[in-house]
Design goal:
The chain has 8 helices and 14 strands. The protein is of the alpha+beta class and about 350 residues long. The chain has a single domain (about 15-360), classed as Ribosomal Protein S5, domain 2. A hairpin with a 5-residue loop joins strand 11 (about 310-315) and strand 12. The structure holds (3R)-3-hydroxy-3-methyl-5-(phosphonooxy)pentanoic acid.
Length: about 350
């Protein structure tokens, strides 16, 4: 089995003075949710996600060798402007990954980053952002060690992204990514995300995700705090076991294309995630009244039309509406007619399954 130590490099064969790379990395939406973790961003249960296509972070990493190699040195630009409040998170990230990338203090970095989705839309950019930065850092490591295999490159990029933000490790690859050891998913690992290795039915080809922006504000409770509350949680053990079971069910469902069974797992996972929040101590609620209005409207529409549309939720009030490509026209009309009114400023984002990070 691969261990984290396998990603600590011995020595580099090449040297590089300066240059830049640019990668884009997408967001992802979990179907079986990661909620609860051990030390070093090791998940308490396995999760699986659809990689998205349109919601992306694009990051350019410029680097130049420097004299003083005693500390990290970087500038951070967000949409072309210096962004001081993002710096502590990046500083912490660099500290965490230094053991895996011992060259980090040799360079001054300029990190120039932007998102394709609206700023403060309530869509977390930590998954796409950390994945895009990790890809750039791996490109630099590959320049120092060109013999590196593709497997190592992508696994290590995902491992680094995980240390930035857990779910970011699922944003390196597409289209369906598993993170966390699961007995029936060969090569699955707590250390990094892997492409779902089994057959996927054509019903899931180009699956659609329309993200309804219900509340664009800052979350009252961060996911870091939420994960932490799973430590003393009365239902934690059962929940972690359930995630394994649901992932098992999804293996069969992805193979046979049973959309009714898919909907049951996905919606149950979303509500379970929020149920865990509501039953933590302290307890909290991240859904808002419009989230529930949307869920009820989806259930009514599904019952009346038999169209296999369902919802999932992140750690927030926004709703992801998931549906097969061949139902797009009808579902989009339904969204426009009945759901847009529940969105802040009528905003929503049309996305779909995508292929992961791309070098630009
Ligand atoms: O990656 P984090 O620590 O922000 O946690 C994300 C957790 C959920 O989005 C709620 C679930 C998931 O698996 O993505």
């Amino acid at each position: 089995m691969i261990s984290a130590n396998d990603f600590i490099p011995s020595k580099y064969t090449h040297s590089v003075e300066s240059g830049f790379f640019q990668w884009s990395a997408p967001s992802n939406i979990a179907l079986v949710k990661y909620w609860g973790k051990k030390d070093n961003q090791i998940p308490a249960n396995p999760s699986v996600s659809f990689t998205l296509n349109n919601c992306k972070t694009i990051t350019k990493l410029a680097f130049a060798k420097k004299e003083n190699q005693g500390s990290f040195s970087f500038d951070l630009l967000f949409e072309g402007q210096p962004k001081e409040d993002f710096k502590p998170k990046i500083q912490k990230f660099l500290e965490r990954i230094e053991i895996y990338l011992p060259f980090l203090k040799d360079y001054h970095f300029t990190i120039d980053t932007e998102n394709t989705f609206p700023h403060s839309s309530g869509i977390a950019s930590s998954a796409s952002g950390m994945a895009a930065l990790a890809m750039n850092l791996m490109s630099l490591e590959k320049a120092l060690n060109p013999e590196m295999t593709d497997d190592y490159f992508f696994q290590k990029a995902s491992l680094l992204a995980r240390l930035g933000s857990g779910s970011a490790c699922r944003s390196v690859k597409g289209k369906v990514v598993v993170w966390g050891n699961q007995k029936n998913i060969p090569a699955s690992s707590d250390l990094f995300g892997v492409e779902f290795p089994h057959a996927i039915h054509e019903n899931f080809t180009n699956y659609q995700d329309t993200i309804l922006l219900v509340d664009k504000g800052e979350k009252q409770v961060s996911s870091t705090v939420g994960h932490d509350l799973m430590h003393e949680h009365p239902f934690a053990e059962r929940r972690f076991a359930q995630a394994h079971e649901n992932l098992d069910h999804l293996i069969t469902i992805f193979e046979n294309g049973d959309l009714d069974a898919f909907i049951k797992i996905v919606e149950s996972e979303a509500l379970t995630l929020h149920a865990m929040m509501m039953t933590s101590m302290p307890y909290f609620i991240l859904m808002n009244p419009n989230t529930l209005q949307i869920i009820n409207a989806i259930w009514k529409f599904r019952k009346e039309t038999k169209i296999p549309v369902c919802f999932t939720l992140d750690a927030g009030a926004n709703v992801h509406v998931l549906y097969p490509e061949n139902t797009s026209e009808k579902v989009l009309q339904f969204i426009k007619d009945e759901l847009v009114g529940y969105c802040q400023n009528g905003q929503y984002i049309c996305d779909r399954i995508g292929n992961g990070a791309v070098l630009i």
